[in-house]
Structures are given as C-alpha cells and as structure tokens.
Specification:
Layout: E1 4-5, E2 11-15, H1 18-21, H2 34-38, H3 57-70, E3 75-79, H4 82-85, H5 95-110, E4 114-120, H6 126-130, H7 138-154, E5 160-165, H8 167-175, H9 187-211, E6 217-223, E7 227-229, H10 234-257, H11 262-267, H12 279-283, E8 289-293, E9 298-302, E10 311-313, H13 330-343, E11 348-352, H14 370-388, E12 393-399, E13 418-421, E14 426-429, H15 431-442, E15 444-445
Parallel strand pairs: 2-3, 2-12, 3-4, 4-5, 5-6, 6-8, 7-9, 8-11, 11-12
Antiparallel strand pairs: 1-15, 9-10, 13-14
Helix pairs in contact: 3-5, 7-9, 8-9, 13-14, 14-15
The structure holds beta-D-fucopyranose.
C-alpha cells in the first residue's frame, strides 16, 4: 500500500498540561490551584496521589525539549499555570512564573519547535475558586487580564494561542458530577460555569489580539465525541441526540453560531445559565482555529430513569476497551467531517489524541507499546482520510509526551510516548515514540500494519 502523505508544513507534536507534568507545586511563588486542593481530599484520586512532583518538568524542561527534538517534533502544545503567574488569580504578578515560560518558549524556538500555548488547562487559582470559581462571572474578566499579562510577555514570539482546554469537562466534571476539581455537585452552577468559560474565552481572545506583538492566532480546544445510539430504535436515536446536545453541541454552537442549542436548552431549562446582553457576540467572535481533542465515542441508550436527559451509556465490548474508554478510530473521521459540514472552521488542529496502555520496560530496556502504535496508525489513517475530504487540519498533537498524572486516575494510566520512572524521573522513549518520529520525518504514514500486532 502507498504511503499516505500529510500536507506540507504540517504541525507534528505532543500536548501536555502544566498541572499534569510540572510538579514544583509551591515553588518560586506559585499559588495553590483547585487541583492542588482537590487532589489532597481523600478518595478523589484513585491511587491517592497528587501532582506535587509529577514529572518534575519544571526542573527538567530542557531534557524534555531535547526529547521532543529527538522525536523530530516541530510543534509543542503546553499549558501555562495561571497560579504560577498570578498566585491569587488576580492582582500581584509573580515574575519567576513568567520567567519560567519565557525560558521554555526560547528553548523550544531554539530547536525549531513552535509553541502552542493553552492558557487554561484546569488549574484555577484557589483564591478565585474561593471567590465563587467559574460560576462567578468575575472569573471571566480575571481570566482576560491573565491572558493579557501572558501575551505581553510572550506575544513577541508566540503566535498560537488556545484559551481553554475542554470547557465541557471543566463544567460537567467539575461542577455536575464532581469527579474533577473543584469537585462540586452543583447543577445550578454547571452551565453558568460553562457560559462564563465561553465569555472568558471571548474576552481573552480580545486581550490576546490587542496585546501580543506578533499577530495572535487564537483558538479554543473542545473535547468532541460522536454519540451513537446503542440500537436502531427511535428511542435510542433520540437519546443519542439529546446526549450529543449536552456534550458536543452545547460547546460548539455558542462559539460558531452565538447561541446555545435550542433542544438542549429546553431539555435542561431549569439549570440553564443567565446570559447578559452582548455576551453571545463576544463569545462567537471568529476564532482562527478549532482545537479538536478526540479520544473515543459514546454509545447511548434510552433510559427513562436517568435524570434530565434519560440517556445512559452502553458499555463497550471488552476487546475494544482501553482501560478508560473504547478504542474507536473511525470516530475521528466522523467528527472532523461533521464539524466541517456543520460549523466550517477555517482551520483545525488535532490538539489531543491518545490512549492509556499499561506499559512496562522489557528486559532489554525497550518499551514495546504496540497497542499505542496501532491506535496511532488507526487514528492517523482516519485523519488523513478527513484531510483528503477537504477538512482543513493543519497539525496533530499526540496526548501525550510523558506519562503523567491523569487527574482522578492518578499515575496508573500511562499515556506517554515517553515512559517516566516516577522514582528516578528517568525518561525512556517508547516504541511508539520512535514510530511517530519516523512518521514526522517522512510527513507520511505507512498504512500497512505489518506483522500482526498484539491484541488491544
Ligand atoms: C483530556 C485532557 C487531558 C488528559 C487526557 C487523557 O480530556 O485534556 O488533560 O487527561 O484527557
């Protein structure tokens, strides 16, 4: 089979997140975030861990940049820790925090790796949470000011900016199910949090564009999953559409259309947010690119007993189960072509895509994570198909560079292209890392899986 070529100047890299890798949780003036607090609450993280140290990236960033260069990466998506820059969320700036990211950006550029900065990857300064958190509208203006401060410092070199990572996860898991920080079960605050996140996105976009010296290209990253009905019954189909409204359309429509989906609004009317005049214009100001995080799909069936949405997830077949979710490659193609058809974003980046594999180092020091290679190949073939169909995807960021702290699952799931021994902090490039480095070098993939791989 012929190699599948990717477009010229395709961005290839990995994505990371400050809280999950940096460690140094209270160093150099950093303030506490809601994850510092939440992870210490008994029972919130399955292995009882936290990210106080994580991958110690705060001290090992130079080595990590060298690894990216060794893997041929030409781009890197990372997040900035808001409480490192503003320990109280607003007010006094912590200079060492800005200095850290300044050095990181210079280090990346020196190796020809383009920085893609995410401003919010879930580590809200604790002080802002104490003042009401995302359900409080003021948080949106604090976020815009934080964006301005960062743009002032880094906007002479950085041109790719992401306001938020996955507002659906922040609002639904942070304020509805309580699985993630701040761990609230607060239905009335959930969609208000989502609305304020969007508002903050719009305000930050203005701040970035007016402050950065180099023209800022700004996007938002959404976690998108196709929702399929468990059977062909009309009831299951309707359940899937309702669920799609809550997890996908509620987060796409405001950005692209300046309104929330009508069916979802009606369904959840009692917990819908308060919107002020002018909000939706701010929120729907054109983005430069959409960031798509794709992991899996949902399969839903009708369930009259499930509160509000009457839809419940059908469990995946054991053989397709990654340990956290179903492995389902075609969903990436489906999602991308749907977004293109319904929302027409000018540019798209795949900002996350990956799986947890229970990796271990073999006797010869190699790490044969063939299941990850298979997942990567499956997904990149689907991505290539979508690009061929005309979907304007300009880059792919694998989740993730290093094994790291996976939120409420602690350190158990390993998502990295690079293995981390948490006792010694030694990094070992996995076979998947070698594999993707070749893909990047050729800017093409061999779709032939070669000899049979291990089962998933
Ligand atoms: C995404 C998050 C990222 C990581 C992956 C596995 O939802 O953005 O931080 O946890 O899932």
């Amino acid at each position: 089979m012929a190699f599948l070529n990717f477009p010229d100047k395709f961005a290839w890299g990995a994505a990371t997140c400050a809280y999950q890798i940096e460690g140094a949780w209270n160093e150099d003036g950093k303030g506490p975030s809601i994850w510092d607090t939440f992870s210490r609450l008994p029972g919130k993280v399955s292995d009882g861990s936290n990210a106080d140290v994580a991958c110690d990236h705060y001290h090992r960033w130079q080595e990590d940049i060298r690894i990216m260069a060794e893997l041929n990466m030409n781009a890197y998506r990372f997040s900035i820790s808001w409480p490192r820059i503003l320990p109280q969320g607003a007010g006094k700036i912590n200079a060492p925090g800005l200095d850290f990211y300044d050095r990181l950006v210079d280090g990346l550029l020196a190796r020809g790796i383009e920085p893609f900065i995410t401003l919010y990857h879930w580590d809200l300064p604790q002080a802002l949470h104490d003042a009401g958190g995302w359900p409080n509208r003021d948080t949106a203006s604090h976020f815009a000011e934080y964006a301005r401060i960062v743009a002032e410092r880094l906007g002479d070199r950085v041109t790719k900016w992401i306001t938020h990572n996955e507002p659906s996860v922040v609002s639904l898991l942070g304020y509805f199910t309580g699985e993630y920080a701040p761990g609230e079960i607060n239905p009335m605050g959930t969609f208000q949090a989502a609305h304020n996140l969007f508002l903050s996105h719009g305000l930050a976009m203005q701040a970035l564009r007016t402050t950065a010296k180099k023209p800022a290209q700004v996007g938002i990253v959404l976690h998108l999953r196709p929702v399929h009905p468990a059977t062909n019954s009309e009831l299951d189909k309707a359940a899937a559409w309702r669920y799609d409204g809550v997890i996908n359309r509620f987060f796409l429509d405001p950005v692209f259309f300046g309104r929330y989906p009508e069916d979802t609004w009606k369904l959840l009317e009692i917990i819908m947010p308060k919107i002020q005049d002018g909000d939706m214009e701010i929120i729907s100001a054109p983005i430069d690119f959409l960031g798509v995080n794709y992991y899996t799909r949902f399969v839903m069936r009708h369930d009259p007993d499930t509160m509000l949405i009457q839809a419940v997830e059908a469990p995946p077949a054991e053989s397709e189960y990654s340990g956290l979710w179903e492995i389902y490659g075609p969903g990436l193609y489906e999602m991308l072509t749907r977004i293109q058809k319904d929302y027409h974003p000018a540019q798209i980046y795949i900002t996350e895509n990956g799986i947890p594999v229970p990796d271990g180092i073999d006797w010869d020091g190699r790490l044969r994570d063939y299941r990850r290679i298979r997942y990567l190949r499956d997904n990149l073939v689907q991505l290539h198909r979508a690009i061929n169909k005309g979907v304007p995807v300009l880059g792919y960021f694998h989740w993730t560079l290093l094994d790291n702290f996976e939120w409420s699952h602690g350190y158990e799931p390993r998502f990295g292209l690079v293995y981390v021994d948490y006792k010694t902090q030694k990094r070992t490039i996995k076979e998947s890392g070698r594999w993707i480095s070749q893909v990047i070098q050729q800017n093409a993939i061999d779709p032939d899986p070669g000899p049979p791989f291990f089962p998933r």
